[in-house]
Design a protein that fits this description.
Layout (H helix, E strand, L loop, with lengths): L2 H8 L3 H7 L3 H19 L9 H18 L1 H13 L5 H20 L5 H22 L5 H28 L1
Length: about 170
C-alpha cells in the first residue's frame, strides 16, 4: 500500500494526505481506530448474554470474522500498530483506548470498573501478540483464533477465581 494510492482512492493530493498523516503507519492506525469505533457502534455488545464470557464470545466472534475477511488489511494494520514509532503515539493511544473500552464495557455489561479496564487491556494485548504472529506467517488463522480464545478464557477464569477468593478471604 502506497500513500499515492491512498490519496487517489480518497480523491485528494498526496501532499494533503501527508499534511494529516506524516506516514503510512499513521493512516493505518487511524483506520484501525475508525474500525474499532464502527464495531462499537454496530452493536451493544454489553447486553443480550447473561455472563461476561458469553458477551465477550459474541464480540470476539465478530472480531475474528472481520480480521479473517481481509487478511492483507489485517496484516498491514497489525504491523502498523506493532511497529509505529513515537510520532504515532497519540494515534496508537486512541486506538488502544477505543478497543480497551469496548472490551471492558462488554465484560461489565455496562459502565466498566477499573478491573474491567485492566482485564480488557490484557485481552487486547493477547489479540495484538497473536495477530503479530499471524501477520508474520508464524500462525494460521485457525491457530491464531484458537490461541486468542484459549488465552482469553484462561484469563477470565483466573480473574473470576481471584474475585471469588477476595470475597471469602
Amino acid at each position: 500500500m502506497q500513500m499515492r494510492v491512498i490519496a487517489e482512492r480518497v480523491g485528494i493530493a498526496v501532499g494533503t494526505l501527508y499534511r494529516y498523516f506524516p506516514a503510512k503507519t499513521h493512516v493505518l492506525v487511524a483506520a484501525l481506530t475508525r474500525e474499532f469505533h464502527r464495531l462499537d457502534e454496530a452493536g451493544d455488545w454489553g447486553v443480550g448474554a447473561s455472563t461476561p464470557v458469553e458477551r465477550l464470545e459474541r464480540l470476539t466472534a465478530q472480531l475474528h470474522q472481520r480480521w479473517q475477511c481481509d487478511p492483507l488489511l489485517t496484516e498491514a494494520m497489525t504491523r502498523a500498530f506493532a511497529v509505529a514509532d513515537a510520532r504515532a503515539a497519540a494515534e496508537l493511544d486512541r486506538a488502544a483506548a477505543v478497543i480497551q473500552t469496548l472490551l471492558a464495557r462488554t465484560l461489565s455489561g455496562g459502565e466498566p470498573a477499573p478491573t474491567d479496564l485492566h482485564i480488557a487491556g490484557l485481552i487486547s494485548d493477547i489479540w495484538l501478540a497473536n495477530l503479530v504472529a499471524f501477520s508474520g506467517h508464524r500462525a494460521s488463522a485457525a491457530d491464531t483464533r484458537d490461541r486468542i480464545d484459549r488465552a482469553t478464557r484462561r484469563l477470565l477464569s483466573r480473574a473470576e477465581e481471584t474475585e471469588v477468593a477476595k470475597r471469602y478471604f
